[in-house]
Specification:
heterodimer, A: alpha+beta, Fumarate Reductase Iron-sulfur Protein, Chain B, domain 2, 2 domains, five-stranded mixed beta sheet, two-stranded antiparallel sheet, B: alpha+beta, Flavocytochrome C3, Chain A, domain 1, Methane Monooxygenase Hydroxylase, Chain G, domain 1, five-stranded antiparallel beta sheet, 23 strands, about 15% strand, globular
Chain lengths: ~250, ~650
């Protein structure tokens, strides 16, 4: 099939960007979206032009590197899918496709479709861990965790840190990302000791990075490739209130 | 041929060796640790855990990764699980049994001391991960759940659904984050190591390129730890992430670090086949699918292009069940992979035609669906079926899956001694980057175990032991070794950007060399083919440096330039892989040599002549490396011959 691509081009974070139009032909429906861009890029190089920069790595939906807004939706039209797992059979011949980077102030554009998501790393550095020294752990089975709790913690821990939640949010909030980690660790017995300080410090860092606050649009959970739901945000807010009342 | 290599492993009873060795190791006084600088390259399970632990001990650590965040390292993609000899299931497991299974799985081509230590440490890893909040699967009792994995007779695999690698990596990443916040680790994301700095015969630093602005920087330290993963991407198509590369290890190799057993790569039998020439990577499907799926191909080449449903039962060849009646569809990875490739090479493969070949066989669930019902199959494999359908557009409930083997893991890597130090003084290698524990074939659920054993529990001690014997010493930025290394990197980048007859994007060369490796240096190897490959590779390398085309500048974000540099190193490694495969005049582990198979077509090992680790030294010319041998001695286990008939 043939497609018209409108791709955001921007040399670096200090320059202005604009859409550039590319026509691609003979696109196979069995190609992934990123493979379609690979082919375009090889053609651009052969044509002495600079290829379109975009982030990718594992190409199996787990590393969280890929990050394209496709036709206005982070990771494109398919539900519960990262861009790398989106296949061209989801598009139709002759379709016009708009491809943009995450549009979030706290994620400055590095080049073209690549953004800097180190703000997410810094939020986790503010308290998204259990302080346990290597070698200081008791036997694994001395910390029983009910299956239900373990499963819920796991579901929160599946976040891949891609940034789609903030990219989808009208307030560019990182609430779902932060809440996923708060829930993962806060549900488990191992995470209780630091539960109060964790929620406060991570949310403070979220503010420092310039993310907005949750305004209950729930766009984040529709965009999340791992289908993490906004119930976690409610849980995070409760943890925050709780942290002012209870010591542990 | 050169002198025999010595691993420096302790002697005496196997179960006391690591304890004794730890006692014999020198220590750095806690107050002195902050004087030492350590560079850790890579942030996967091995690198993340090593940097976090060394930082926590009080050393000054610099950690590097080429990804935009340390959390994206490819350990994240491991699905199955992690082995540990906990014997929580009371099914007779023990450290000895895990040790034995690992060394036997590796077809008796790994070191007893290292492999035993790995099994011994396995139990600590689980404790550590649980304490960090890794959400392992639980039983209703609240205790940790286990499953049996990869043909093991005991249930010793701990798991977090199909995302065990992700959860363990996030555990290590969280430990790393804690140290970054504490200021003991300085993190350099989107920073790629391009050169090793050697001073007075010691590894003293690295030269990096900042991938955002192209800035070339030098970093010096008291020692360097490489945790940069495996080289499966030498084959172009593999289950590795696109960014996985051998460059850090290869730069070290060019400075004198021996590369061990480069031909030992693992092939996974159940991957989704290639659908076209544009294919960028292959996706692994869990091997558990073979529990209920039946593998077959049409009897006749004429049926290749037919719909599976149109091929009658008597026209189907269930080749694994036919050839291996005892194990059937559950034969080990290498046997299943080899059989599928043979069937396709005979012209009986199915699926789309790519470059004139159909490379795939069916994995058919129709019988299991009839027997157990669709809902039971959905319960077991629902997520895998969905993933398959997403990629291929076909539903495995209605039509058989198509599978084909793909490169999955590299057992070979930098040679290391018992302390995980390479043949370069002060240069350590951990995780998939080294060759140490898996011999000629890795057991399922053992890669995560090794990465974390090395990073949390071995290298922090052995690095301390090394540093205790050297005074902390700063290197001036204008030291001639530093400026020379920086200059080398700049020159190489200039060359990549300005090839005399620039014509082809870097991938053009990568696909070419990858195809040669896949055809001649994967699961079946023929000496004549390997010789032919050795003739084909050097001209591709020459053509690369003449005709590679990289547009854009070196002083900006330039992914083409990044890839070109990595491919240049794969083009040298590819030749070493073939040389090693040719030298190893036996079948072993995951590889069969066509001249060393039994009458029934089974691989034949040659313990008398090939019970060694082949460690290759760079000689200045990629085509003529020097071979060093580390003789493997088996004091506690007796190499046996496996049979799956």
């Amino acid at each position: 099939m043939n497609l018209i691509l409108n791709i955001w081009r921007q040399p670096n974070c200090d320059s202005e960007g604009e859409f550039e139009v590319f026509k691609v032909s003979d696109v196979s429906p069995d190609m992934s979206f990123l493979e379609m861009l690979d082919v375009l890029n090889e053609d651009l190089i052969s044509d002495d032009q600079e290829p379109v920069a975009f982030d990718y790595d594992c190409r199996e939906g787990i590393c969280g590197a890929c990050s394209l807004v496709i036709n206005g939706s982070p990771h494109g039209p398919q539900k519960a899918t990262t861009t790398c797992q989106l296949y061209m059979r989801e598009f139709s011949d002759g379709e016009e496709v708009w491809i943009e980077p995450w549009r979030v102030g706290a994620f400055p554009v590095v080049r073209d479709l690549v953004v800097d998501r180190s703000a997410y790393d810094r939020i986790l550095q503010a308290g998204g861990f259990v302080s346990v020294r290597t070698g200081a752990a008791p036997d694994g089975n001395t910390i029983p965790v009910s299956k239900d709790l373990a499963d819920r913690a796991f579901t929160s821990a599946t976040c891949i840190g891609c940034g789609a939640c903030a990219a989808a949010c009208p307030s560019a909030s990182a609430s779902l990302f932060v809440a996923a980690k708060i829930s993962h660790l806060g549900l488990l017995p191992q995470g209780q000791t630091e539960r109060n300080s964790r929620v406060r410090m991570m949310l403070a860092q979220m503010d420092n990075e310039g993310f907005g606050h949750c305004s209950n649009h729930a766009e984040c959970q529709s965009a999340c490739p791992k289908e993490i739901d906004i119930g976690r945000i409610a849980r995070m807010n409760r943890d925050l209130s709780r942290s002012f009342i209870r010591r542990t | 041929m050169n002198s025999e290599l010595n691993a420096g492993d302790p002697t005496g009873p196997l179960e006391n060796r690591w304890t004794k060795h730890r006692f014999d190791m020198a220590l750095v006084n806690p107050a002195n640790r902050k004087k030492y600088q350590i560079i850790v390259v890579g942030t996967g399970l091995a690198g993340g855990s090593a940097a976090a632990t060394l930082g926590e001990m009080g050393y000054q650590v610099k950690s590097f990764c080429f990804q935009d965040s340390p959390r994206r390292a490819h350990s994240i993609a491991a699905q199955g699980g992690i082995n540990a000899a906990k014997n929580y299931q009371n099914d007779g497991d023990s450290v000895w049994r895990l040790f034995y299974d690992t060394i036997k799985g590796g077809d008796f081509r790994s070191r007893e001391s290292n492999t035993y230590r790995l099994a011994e440490i396995s139990v600590n890893i689980i404790d550590q991960a649980v304490a960090q909040g890794v959400p392992f699967a639980r039983e209703y009792s609240g205790l940790l759940a286990n499953r049996s994995f990869g043909g093991a007779q005991v249930s010793r695999t701990f798991y977090a659904r199909g995302q065990t690698g992700q959860q363990l990596l996030l555990g290590a990443y969280q430990a790393l984050n804690r140290q970054i916040a504490a200021g003991t680790v300085t993190m350099f994301p989107r920073t790629e190591m391009l050169e090793l700095i050697m001073i007075d015969g010691r590894a003293r630093g690295i030269v990096t390129r900042n991938l955002v602005d192209g800035n070339i920087e030098s970093h010096t330290a008291d020692c360097v730890v490489l945790c940069t993963g495996g080289y499966g991407n030498a084959y172009y198509l593999s289950t590795n992430a696109k960014g996985c590369n051998t460059s850090a290890a290869w730069r070290a190799h060019r400075h004198g670090a021996y590369f061990a057993n480069p031909c030992f790569t693992q092939i996974h039998p159940t991957c989704i086949p290639q659908s076209g020439t544009y294919q960028s990577k292959l996706t692994l499907m869990s091997e558990s699918l073979r529990n209920d799926g039946r593998v077959w191909a049409p009897n006749a080449s004429a049926d290749q292009a037919c719909n599976a449903a149109d091929i009658r039962e008597e026209e189907r060849d269930y080749f694994l069940e036919r050839r291996y009646p005892a194990f059937g569809n559950l034969v080990p990875r290498d046997i299943a992979s080899r059989a599928a490739k043979e069937v396709c090479d005979e012209g009986r493969g199915v699926g789309p035609e790519v470059n004139g070949k159909r490379l795939g066989v069916y994995l058919d669930f129709s019988e299991a669906i009839d027997r157990l019902g669709e809902s039971a199959i959905r319960e077991r494999y629902g997520n895998l079926f969905e993933m398959y359908e997403r990629i291929t557009g076909e539903s495995p409930y209605k039509t058989p899956m198509r599978i084909y083997p793909a490169i999955h893991y590299a057992m070979g890597g930098l040679w290391v001694d018992y302390n995980l130090m390479t043949s370069i003084d002060g240069l350590f290698a951990t995780g998939e980057c080294n060759f140490s524990d898996h011999g000629a074939n890795r057991l399922g659920a053992s890669a995560l175990m090794q990465g974390l054993a090395d990073g949390y529990f071995i290298v922090p001690y052995s690095v301390g032991n090394y540093l205790a014997r050297h005074e902390a010493q700063k290197i001036a930025d204008d030291h001639v070794a530093v400026t020379d290394a920086v200059e080398n990197v700049r020159n190489r980048i200039e060359q990549l950007l300005n090839a005399p007859d620039a014509k082809h994007p870097p991938e053009y060369f990568h696909r070419k060399v990858g195809q040669i490796l896949w055809d001649h240096c994967s699961m079946t190897r023929d000496p004549a083919d390997l010789r032919a490959a050795l003739k084909q590779i050097p001209p591709i390398r020459e053509q690369f440096w003449r005709e590679v085309k990289v547009t854009g500048s070196g002083e900006a974000f330039n992914q083409t330039l990044e890839r070109a540099g990595r491919i240049a190193d794969f083009l040298e490694l590819a030749e070493l892989m073939c040389l090693d495969a040719l030298d190893r005049d036996e079948s072993c582990g995951s590889h069969a040599r066509t001249d060393h198979v039994t009458e029934e077509g089974e691989a034949k090992r040659d313990d008398e002549n090939y019970s060694y680790v082949a460690a290759w030294e760079f000689s200045g010319d990629a085509s003529t490396p020097t071979l060093h041998k580390e003789q493997l001695r088996f004091e506690f286990v007796h190499p046996s011959v496996r049979s799956y008939k």
